[in-house]
Design brief:
This is Tubulin polyglutamylase TTLL13P. This protein is an alpha+beta fold. Helices cover about 45% and strands about 15% of the residues. It binds adenosine-5'-diphosphate.
C-alpha cells in the first residue's frame, strides 16, 4: 500500500502546511524576521563583508546558478534593484552562493570597496551589497586559488549535531564516512589505518600522537622532562608526580613541605576520582595516580574559584602553527572558596571547577548576564580584570606562552608521527585540531596548565556555550585550508600516477635513474642551481598558500605560533631543539623506576604463563594415562622392544621377600582347600589324567589306584 496516497498522510500534510502558514502569519503580525533573513545575516557574518548592508532584497530563485563568481570593486556604491532574475540573464558579478556566503572563488585581499552579490538560501535568491571587511589581515597581492567543487564533511563520528549544522550553513555537503569527504570530524582519535588511507585532499580533526599531551600521565611526563631540561622556563604546571614510579620522590617532598596534594586517576576526566589530602602516607605504594601540589591560593572572582577553558587550534605541526580563540569559557566552582583544611577537603563544589561536578550543586548559577553565572565568557573575565587594574595583555601573553610550551613538549613526537602517517600529503595539511586547554590562575595571575582535552565538549546547554562554541566551530571551518585542495584534480593526478607506475617498463626506470645521476653529477661539478632551486617545491608552494589562507581567514582567532612578536621566535627556537640535547627516550630516574616496574610485571606475567603451561602439561599427561587399553598395551610393547628394556631391572630384597611370602601363602591355601586333590581325583575318575600329571603327583596316583579318597586325606 502506498502510504503517500493514504487519507491519513494527506491529512497530516494539510495540518503541517496549515501550521506552517499560521506560524508565518503570526511572525509577520509580530513583526519578526523570517528565519531565512536571519540565515542571510548569519551568512553575511561568515563572509568578508561587514555591516552596513546597503540593501537586502530577495526574489524567488528562478533557475540554477552558474558556479563562476568573483567580487568586483566598484567605484561608486552599488545601486541594487529588486528584480526577478531569469535563468537566461547574463552572468552578473556575484558572490558564490551555496547555503552560506562562502564568499568567492578568487580573493583579492585589497578589496575594500563595496562588493555585491547573491546568496542562495532555502531556494530563494538574495541580492546583497555590503562594504568589504577592512580587518587587520595583511594585504597580499597574490591571488589564492580556491577549489571549485563543493567540500564534503563527514560528521557521523561526532555526537554534536551543531557541527553538522554549521558545516551545512557554510556550504559543506554532509556525507558518510565511506564517501570521499574533505573533512572528517570525529570525537575520538581515529585508528592509524584511517590516517594511512587518507587522500591528499582530505583532512581530519586530530593529529596522530596528540595523546602525548592529552592524557594526564603523558602530559606530566613530557612537562617534567622539559622542566629538567629548562628549569627556568617550564614552571608552567604544578609540581607533579606519577605514582607509583615517583612514590619515593613524592613522599620525600611531602616530608619536607607542608602542602596539600591533589590526587587524580592517570587517565580520568570530568573530575572523576579526584581527592585532596595532606597526608600522602594514606596512598599505597602500588596505586596508579597522578599526584600534584594543590594551588591553594587561586585567583577568586566574587569569592569563587574558577578555571579557564582556552580553545587552541593547531593547523600544522611542521611548521608549528597555533591559533588561540579570543573567546572561551571560565568555569566556576559553586561553593565559596576557603583554603583547604581537613574539614573542607572533601567539598568538591569548592575545590573543583568542572562543569560536570558543579552542575549537580543546587547553587549552580544559570544567569545569562556577563558578570554572573557559573559559566562566563572570557571577555567577561577580561572586563573584570580591567576593572580591577590587572594587566590583561600581559596575562594573555603568559597564557599563550603556557600553551606554546605545552605543545612544544610533545612536538618531536607530533612531527615524527605526522610525517610517518602522511608521507605524500603535499597539497594541504592532513590534520587540524581544536584543543581545550584547562588553565588555572593563581592570585598573582600566573597561569598553570592543568589539562589538555583533544575533544573538548561542544555541548550547548547554556546560552554562553552557544555564544562561544558556535562561532568557534564556524571560524575553525573557515580557517582550515580544505578549500585550497582541488579534489577532482588530485584524484585525476593520483589515477595518472598509478597508471604511469604500472606502465613504466624496467628499462624506463633504469634510463631515468641514469639521467638523474648524470644531472646530479653535472650540477655538483658546475655548482649550478639544482632543479629544486630553479622551481620552488610544490610542497613549499602549497604551504605558502595555506599560510596566506589562514592569515586572511583568522576570524576571532589570534596566531600565537609563529609568535607575532619576532623577538620571541629565537626564544621558542631552543625548545624545538630539545631532541638534540636530550632524547625524549633518554632515561630519567622516574623512567628507570617505571621500567623496573614494567620488568617486574613482565616477570610476573611470564611466571603465570609458565604455571599455566605446567598445568596444561599435567592435564595432558593425565589424559595420556587414561588412553584406551589397547593403545596402552601397544605402547608398553613398543617400549619393551627397545633394547635397553631387555636388561634386567633392579630387584629390591624387600620386594623379593614379600613376593616369596605371597607365593607360600598361595600354596598353603591351595593345599588347605585341597583344590589340587579334588581336580586330580575327578580327572582320574573320568580317565583324563595325562602322563605329566602322573609323573608330577605320583603319590596321589598311587593312593587313587589303591582306592583311597584323597580329597578327605590330610
Ligand atoms: P579532570 O580531567 O578530571 O577534570 P583536572 O586535572 O582538570 O581533572 O582537575 C579537575 C579540577 O580540579 C580542575 O578544574 C581544578 O579546578 C581542580 N584542580 C586540578 N588540579 C589542581 C591543582 N593542582 N590545584 C588546584 N586545583 C586543581
Amino acid at each position: 500500500m502506498n502510504l503517500k496516497n493514504s487519507k491519513f498522510y494527506k491529512r497530516i500534510q494539510e495540518l503541517r502546511n496549515f501550521s506552517k502558514e499560521k506560524i508565518r502569519k503570526d511572525r509577520e503580525q509580530r513583526g519578526l524576521r523570517t528565519p531565512v533573513i536571519r540565515g542571510v545575516e548569519m551568512a553575511l557574518s561568515e563572509s568578508k563583508c561587514v555591516a552596513p548592508v546597503i540593501e537586502l532584497e530577495w526574489s524567488q530563485l528562478a533557475g540554477p546558478l552558474k558556479e563562476e563568481c568573483s567580487p568586483r570593486r566598484r567605484p561608486s556604491p552599488p545601486k541594487i534593484k529588486q528584480s526577478k532574475r531569469k535563468a537566461s540573464a547574463p552572468a552578473e558579478p556575484r558572490l558564490k552562493g551555496g547555503q552560506g556566503f562562502q564568499p568567492v572563488k578568487t580573493i583579492g585581499l585589497n578589496d575594500e570597496a563595496p562588493v555585491e552579490g547573491y546568496i542562495d538560501l532555502n531556494n530563494l535568491r538574495f541580492r546583497v551589497a555590503c562594504t568589504a571587511r577592512t580587518d587587520n589581515s595583511p594585504r597580499r597581492e597574490e591571488v589564492l586559488k580556491v577549489s571549485d567543487s563543493k567540500s564534503a564533511i563527514c560528521v557521523s563520528n561526532s555526537r554534536y549535531a551543531m557541527i553538522g549544522r554549521i558545516s551545512k550553513s557554510l556550504g559543506y555537503k554532509l556525507v558518510k564516512e565511506s564517501k570521499l569527504w574533505n573533512i572528517l570530524w570525529s570525537d575520538s582519535f581515529p585508528g592509524v589505518e584511517l590516517f594511512k588511507n587518507m587522500k591528499r585532499f582530505q583532512q581530519i580533526n586530530h593529529f596522530p600522537g596528540m595523546i602525548e599531551i592529552c592524557r594526564k600521565d603523558l602530559l606530566s611526563r613530557n612537562l617534567n622532562r622539559m622542566l629538567k631540561l629548562y628549569p627556568h622556563d617550564y614552571k608552567i604546571f604544578p609540581k607533579t608526580w606519577m605514582l607509583p614510579a615517583d612514590y619515593g620522590d613524592a613522599m620525600h617532598y611531602a616530608q619536607n613541605h607542608k602542602r596539600t596534594f591533589i590526587l587524580k586517576p592517570d587517565s580520568g576526566a570530568q573530575g572523576r576520582g579526584i581527592w585532596l589530602t595532606n597526608d600522602l602516607k594514606t596512598i599505597g605504594p602500588n596505586e596508579r595516580l597522578i599526584c600534584q601540589t594543590y594551588i591553594h591560593r587561586p585567583l577568586l572572582i566574587d569569592g569563587y574559584k574558577f578555571d579557564l577553558r582556552v580553545y587552541t587550534l593547531i593547523t600544522s605541526v611542521d611548521p608549528l602553527r597555533l591559533y588561540v580563540y579570543n573567546e572561551g569559557l571560565a568555569r566556576f566552582a559553586t561553593n565559596k572558596y576557603v583554603e583547604p583544611t581537613p574539614g573542607n577537603a572533601h567539598d568538591l563544589y569548592m575545590h573543583l571547577t568542572n562543569y560536570s561536578v558543579n552542575k549537580r550543586n543546587s547553587q549552580y548559577d544559570l544567569c545569562d548576564n556577563d558578570d554572573c553565572g557559573s559559566k562566563r565568557k572570557l571577555s567577561a573575565i577580561n572586563n573584570w580584570m580591567t576593572r580591577h587594574n590587572y594587566d590583561v595583555g600581559e596575562f594573555w601573553s603568559n597564557v599563550d606562552d603556557v600553551i606554546i610550551k605545552t605543545v612544544l613538549s610533545a612536538w618531536p613526537v607530533l612531527k615524527h608521527n605526522y610525517h610517518a602517517c602522511f608521507p605524500g600529503h603535499d597539497t594541504i595539511q592532513a590534520c587540524f585540531e581544536i584543543l581545550g586547554f584547562d588553565i588555572l590562575v593563581d592570585w598573582k595571575l600566573k597561569p598553570y596548565i592543568l589539562e589538555v582535552n583533544h575533544s573538548p565538549s561542544f555541548h550547548t546547554n547554556e546560552q554562553v556555550d552557544r555564544e562561544v562554541k558556535r562561532p568557534l566551530i564556524r571560524d575553525t571551518l573557515s580557517l582550515v585550508s580544505t578549500v585550497l585542495a582541488d579534489k577532482r584534480q588530485i584524484l585525476r593526478e593520483d589515477r595518472k600516477r598509478v597508471k604511469q607506475r604500472l606502465l613504466k617498463s624496467k628499462s624506463d626506470v633504469q634510463r631515468s635513474r641514469l639521467v638523474a645521476g648524470a644531472t646530479k653529477v653535472l650540477s655538483n661539478k658546475e655548482g649550478s642551481p639544482t632543479n629544486k632551486e630553479q622551481s620552488p617545491e610544490p610542497e613549499a608552494d602549497s604551504l605558502a598558500q595555506q599560510i596566506a589562507w589562514e592569515e586572511s581567514h583568522m576570524g576571532n582567532f589570534r596566531r600565537i605560533m609563529p609568535p607575532p612578536d619576532p623577538s620571541r621566535i629565537n626564544y621558542y627556537g631552543k625548545f624545538f631543539g630539545q631532541t638534540n640535547l636530550v632524547s625524549i627516550f633518554q632515561e630519567t630516574a622516574a623512567s628507570k623506576k617505571r621500567e623496573d616496574l614494567a620488568r617486574k610485571m613482565r616477570l610476573q606475567i611470564e611466571e603465570k604463563k609458565a604455571k599455566q603451561e605446567q598445568m596444561l602439561n599435567s592435564r595432558s599427561k593425565r589424559k595420556r594415562l587414561i588412553q584406551p587399553r589397547l593403545a596402552r598395551e601397544k605402547h608398553r610393547l613398543n617400549l619393551f622392544r627397545l633394547k635397553e628394556n631387555w636388561a634386567p631391572g633392579y630387584v629390591s630384597e624387600a620386594e623379593e621377600r614379600l613376593r616369596n611370602t605371597w607365593q607360600q601363602m598361595r600354596t598353603e591355601a591351595i593345599k588347605n582347600l585341597k583344590i589340587t586333590e579334588s581336580i586330580y581325583s575327578l580327572l582320574f575318575q573320568f580317565g583324563h589324567l595325562s602322563n605329566t600329571d602322573i609323573t608330577t603327583f605320583p603319590n596321589l596316583y598311587h593312593y587313587l589306584q589303591c582306592g583311597y579318597d584323597i580329597t578327605g586325606a590330610t
